[in-house]
Amino acid sequence: MFMKHSQITPARLSDILTSAEAAARAIPPAFPLDVTVAVNPFLGQTGEDLANASARMTRVAGAQITQSATDYAAAIANGTITDTDLSDALDACDLAGKPADLAALKATLAEAQNEAVPLPTVADLAAKATGIDWPSVIEKTFGLWAAGHFDRGQALWSPTPGSDAYSAWKAWAMHDLTPEVAGLTGFCAHVTHAPDSAERAILRAADALGLSDEAAETAFHRLYMDLGGWSQHARWRLWQAELVGDVDRSLADLLAIRLIWEEALLAHVPGIAAEWEEIVAQHAAPIVPNATQIALAILQEAAERAHQRSLSTALDGNKITDERPTLQAAFCIDVRSEVFRRALESVSPCIQTIGFAGFFGLPLAHKAQGSDVVEAHLPVLLTPSVETTSQGDAAAEAEMRIAARAQRAWGRFRQAAVSSFAFVEAAGPLYAGKLVRDALGLGGKERAQSPVPQVIGGMSAEAKAETAAAVLNAMSLTTGHGKVVLLLGHGGQVTNNPHESAYHCGACGGHTGEVSARLLAVLLNDPEARAGLAARGILVPEDTLFVAGLHDTTTDDITLYDDVEVNAWADQIATAKGWLAQAGKIARAERAATLPGSTADTVAARAHNWAEVRPEWGLAGCAAFIAAPRGATSGKDLGGRAFLHSYDWQADESFGTLELILTAPVVVASWISLQYYGSAVAPSVFGGGNKLIHNVVGGLGVIEGNGGGLRPGLPWQAVHDGDKLMHEPLRLSVMIEAPREAIVNVLNAHLDVRALVDNGWLHLFTLKDGRVDARYRPGLIWEDQIAKPLAA
């Protein structure tokens, strides 16, 4: 039944595998649910600009990665985007084929087609020819196998454990009669006789499909996108392997599997051969954006310039104070902290807040209480180097482990196919009261405080001092310490949310910032560390106390940990708790205005409601990153849309901190911004789907309903309120108060970061005395913004 194949030559094998590798690198990783962190969905396209990436994603995924022409037209009509924004964006575009002038741009907008259609796969053509939905058959059968193969402990049984993905799928597919029942006669035999390695299967299928070297890369990319979240999970496995110098071949295995389907369907439906040849020719053609894609990219730039105008107006100069604060509070740079920081500082002039990445610069690999699992509490771009634990005495640990095992066993019993219906029949009535309490927000439990985290093996006096000095330097907190300094990590109170870790601290690898904050507070209060700091020129007053805490971003409550004796600071701590409570009320009132059906008094209760799909907006709305002294942003209402990083360039002698900011927090913030962007503009490709019909699969991610593809990205309810988008999709505007030359030196040393700004995936500005000073242009060029103000 199936076609014969040509001989495999080494040169051909090399070329095809090179194309397969390039296609694999174009796929972003999707992290599992227990460590969900935001990932730039366009990570593989950062080497090209938005218009070219849009043309590529249209070809391989049918994704228009800008807002629609209708959205831009509405923004122009209501004055959000001005003619000045449009003209400036048009002038900044250097693509051939761009509109000649403003009038031509508006004319192109009026004629723009919103629909983006991918090049069809063989399965698409076969479905059209036969009337059988082959893409759906592939999605369901592949998804059923993949859920078992990649399972991370949710399933009671997994097929062929320990096998590579390609071999495991072959063993499964040889006996899965679903394709044959659907009409693909002989498919099991075809799989049986497939090559014994993924690489040879890829080449055999490429020959059968007539893929030229020029066509192979985007044809492969198309199939990876067709597999959706499963491809992204395999990309994560490769990401993790490469962090430790290893390899993972799951991506190549998945491509081989999908190609076997393609060659089988092409042979099964020979009447589509001519049409398929035309598709291959289109894959071989260079990727060139059309007039609509160029115009929409210009309009996206104009929308971002409109937001930059509002930022320019808000940043009207530094507010300088020489008074020593009674209370300093260091928050994560997370945009949700901006609202609380502004509220807290409004309570008393004696309060100063600081912004720093939530892991506080501590590269921790942590074992939580009652667990032997090592968790990386740091950004995914970094590798942990300090091992810590919160485990207590042996008796308490044993008790916790027994309880955890019982809970896991009970959970598995309730979810197992053989017992789920019996469980509902027998125990359902007993759970009625619990469901009602939880729905009314009355079911929350206060989180038990775990033991103080400790470094495994301890730290020498020298190591304590070095670590403390490095953190304080990075925080620009080497002078002017308050009497009480709060180190506040953050996390979110969540109920019935599989994406729980996405609401915690991205800088802590999807965990809360509790461990980092508590460990740092203990370190900075340590007498040996204090002595070492003095020897390094950092004088922390004897009457300064560091206290760790946790900011719950869903309820806007602050928990302070009693890890240190407050004694002489008891009155200040009591006052601080009162200030924090006041600030929480202010922050909840501000956030309630945007949460559907919420009031200031019900914001906290929503966090305990298992049926609430929008307990908080997370980082929706994020649009800017500002690294400057707090004086530049103090008192400015930035609407919870800006990442705020404290930075004093004049205290950064070698610009090591500037380099750290540009290569870590800025990159992570851009990933967050672009994840929200992708989930908003292309939800069918980069979004997580509808929360209401989510089912967790393998601890990896979610599917909608009882089958189908793995959904990466954010649920629709995380960016949309039911009537309109709550996240305005904008690429990040990064504003740093530092010399232009110093920033250029960092970009020259880190070409991956330079690619982000040169290709427009983020906008870069310098500040001077708290005002916008210059705009970065591709090619290490600065455009003076004092001579050409951002404000229209």
Question: What does this protein structure show overall?
Answer:
With 792 residues, the chain is an alpha/beta fold. Among the domains are: 10-34 and 119-284, no CATH class; 50-117 and 289-311, no CATH class; 322-392 and 437-613, no CATH class. 46% of the residues lie in helices and 11% in strands. It is built from 29 helices and 17 strands. The strands form four sheets. It has a six-stranded mixed β-sheet. A hairpin with a 3-residue loop joins strand 12 (694-697) and strand 13 (701-704). The protein is globular. The N and C termini lie far apart (68 Å). Mean pLDDT is 90; it is low at 1-6 and 414-421.
Properties at a glance:
single chain; 792 residues; alpha/beta; 6-stranded mixed sheet; 5-stranded mixed sheet; 29 helices; 46% helix; disordered N terminus
List the helices and strands and how they pair.
Blueprint: H1 10-25, H2 50-61, H3 69-77, H4 83-92, H5 102-111, H6 122-130, H7 134-149, H8 165-173, H9 178-182, H10 187-192, H11 198-208, H12 213-226, H13 229-243, H14 250-268, H15 273-284, H16 291-314, E1 327-332, H17 335-347, E2 351-356, E3 364-367, E4 374-377, E5 386-389, H18 394-415, H19 420-439, E6 454-455, H20 461-474, E7 484-491, H21 514-525, H22 527-535, E8 545-552, E9 557-560, H23 570-592, H24 603-606, E10 624-628, E11 642-646, H25 656-663, H26 665-681, H27 683-686, E12 694-697, E13 701-704, E14 732-736, H28 740-749, H29 751-758, E15 762-768, E16 771-777, E17 781-784
Parallel strand pairs: 1-2, 1-7, 3-5, 7-8, 10-11, 10-14, 14-15
Antiparallel strand pairs: 3-4, 5-6, 8-9, 12-13, 15-16, 16-17
